[in-house]
Amino acid sequence: FGVKTFQAEDEIAAITAVIGASFGGSLAVTASSGPGIALKGEAIGLAVMTELPLVIIDVQRGGPSTGLPTKTEQSDLFISVLGRNGDCPVPVIAAQSPADCFTMAQEALRIAVEFMTPVFLLTDGYIANGAEPWPVPKAADLKPLAIRHPAKPNREGEYLPYLRDDRLVRPWAIPGTPGLEHRIGGLEKAEDTGDVSYDPDNHHRMTMIRKQKVENIAQAIPEQTVMGPSEGDLLVVSWGGTYGAVRAAVERCQHRGRSVAHAHLRYLNPFPRNLGDLLRRYRKVLVPELNTGQLRFLLRANFLVDAQGLNKIKGKPFLVGELVEKMESMLG
Known about the structure:
Blueprint: H1 11-23, E1 29-32, H2 34-50, E2 54-62, E3 68-72, H3 77-82, E4 92-94, H4 100-115, E5 118-124, H5 125-128, H6 200-215, E6 232-239, H7 243-255, E7 260-265, E8 267-269, H8 275-279, E9 282-289, H9 294-303, E10 308-311, H10 320-331
Parallel strand pairs: 1-2, 2-5, 4-5, 6-7, 6-9, 9-10
Antiparallel strand pairs: 2-3, 4-8
Helix pairs in contact: 1-2, 7-10
């Protein structure tokens, strides 16, 4: 498939190489775990400011610092959603199983190129060391990515690199295309032209545009589904590699006649557009996580729901039994 790979000398070199590849018109991906994501942070901000499409894969492990480098954890949700200077929005999605990594990697690339933005794809140590049967798809059956590189000016004989479409997405011109010379960089840029701008009103406007562009992705992803009743006593909300254990625990409670449903999130920023309404259909909400409650924090902040947490930070996945015990205690 003509894929080029190389081992960079450090995390900063890796992310900046990916930015350069994207600027040159190529699909580009870099991968690391928590400490490496911290080192990539400044350059991820550059990718947000320049609005270039690329994917950052974070295989989460126990932290902070070197932490538990061979053990699983889900503690990088905050750094993925919030961990850069300034108002710096980045879409975040997460795989739920080893096979789902293939699907969500394609989805990360789709979102990146359709919305001209860097995208985080989160997995974790449990998924990375796991395995499951997976039919290798035929390349011809995969939906191609809609990549468009303009070849002519987009306004009255000139090229404006930040002239946006209805979804606030800018064009992706390849450097060296005749007549499409343009400026990009980390300094704030004037709307449409991309020229350096210190105008306060322009900075406010551009910040809000970048924010709204990421929020618009909610209209281009599936609505959230649930396994179980559409309303009831308890909704269990999970994400990432906890999928299998949580699904099994919910099914066990359902077989006991309990009014419990399961919503597994694969889109974490922005959330699915129907998630708030869905959460409010249940009397109680439980969020099991292998961290101190990062998704629970975001759900409470965004939707004002009294979500409760079950948190485990031991470098080990959840046991089905401990999940069932927590669900039963909440159901009474």
